[in-house]
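Methods — Computational structure assignment.
A single polypeptide chain was analysed. Its primary sequence is given first, followed by the predicted tertiary structure written as structure tokens.
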Amino acid sequence: MPTPTPAARPTTHEDLPLFALDPDQPPTGTPTHEDLFALDGPALVALLDSLTPAQRDHLAGPYPARWLYPPRPGDAPRQVNVCAGCGGGCAGLRLVLGVRVDMVCIELNKDAAATSTAAGCTVIRRDIRTLDPRHPTLRWTRRIMCTMPCTDWTRAGLGAGRRQENLEILLDAIDGVAAHLGNVWVDGSELCDHDDPDDCEDHCFDHRIEPSGAPITELWSLVDDMTAATAGLMLAPVIWILGLRSIGAPIQSVVIEQSSALPEDVQQYIKDELTTAGCESVQWQDLDAADFGSASNRKRAIMSAHWYRHPGPVTSPDIRTNAALALGWPPDTRINTRGERRTSGGNVFDLDRTITAVTSKIRGWYCQDTGRRFTIPEVCALVGLPGDHPVTGSRTSQCQQLGDIFSPLVCAAAWGTLLGLPWPDMLRTYLARIYPTVHGRPDPAAILGNPDRARTTRPVTDAEILRLFAQGAHPRLRIRSNQPTAP
């Protein structure tokens, strides 16, 4: 694609301008976004302190006003969670890894946004295509997580995103966005004959091209001709990562979660753009939540990237969880899916194992013998969330959110690897908390080495667990947590 010509800055609100405030009754005396970009450090803090809270909110909107200020020493790193869903990724960071993070989640679905808000997240309920990452509140963002909807890559969406015409539009759009945001590397001229370096022009040395300044609507218009709307959302990571980099945001690490059916061409194009942007380590892997202790399978394509480290791939700990034991259901339970599943087992499967992927249709699944259906806390447990995760909305909406979740267990493994944390130990501690009857049994070796044995319960056998379940009781297991403190 030809290099775009730098454009004049747009001035209309409809164009979602780069440096212009909403002209619809702006507060009197409020500086512009351009004014904020021109300042840093004490000068910026002094300007912001001189404004009223209403003026700061207007400047920051829709982001939190606190992000207008430069981070102070000791502040939690700032992170944006694009298409956050019901908070599975946030749970992986906060509940499994226990890391401190100042997160802003962006989610359009009303119920999913309400769920994330109830779970303690700062949520902006907006269409990601209407937000521009080149905003002054975002210039200190250090981490990005992107979990876009994936229907059009899967059989549920009839693989519309994989059609050649749609794939070509998306790949061209990735190239086009990179050019608009200045992520094109140009080799310097070998014919430079200037005696004085001050006489050199841009073409004399290796450099990236200047961003065009095109409005966000123009960038998203590059996928307007796709007939697969959710597949077009794979442009979001490119826009946000390169957009943040273009305003000097100190991006260090990125995680993208997507369908395992995402074409390799799309994965490679995104990887190439991050490499051009100077990223030291970028890798895609297919990871299954069942290998990380989930009671259900969920195989996804995960990209993890770091600008300054080579953490290596995520290594599966191969921890398995039996769904029947995890939920406290009899091991001989047979689940009827009402024809939703297309497997060799037909409409019925055994619960006495790690079950296959949970989907929104779990709302109608029931026990073949008793007719009992899964409760929402049980569905939470099946996907690796605590049973008290505050899922909001109707039963249909709740099951949809949980069926679309980014597994907190896989999220913890991906981010733990990037951040250099001892995530396998943290993961096991978390699994012992949400699946105590499966993973909460004290290790006999640990008991022998524990001088305070009286505070640790003895191991519980499978026979005892089955007997307690048959009586309608759940064993209460106490575990000692030696989870290390996250940086």
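Note: Residues 17 and 215 are 6 Å apart (CA to CA).
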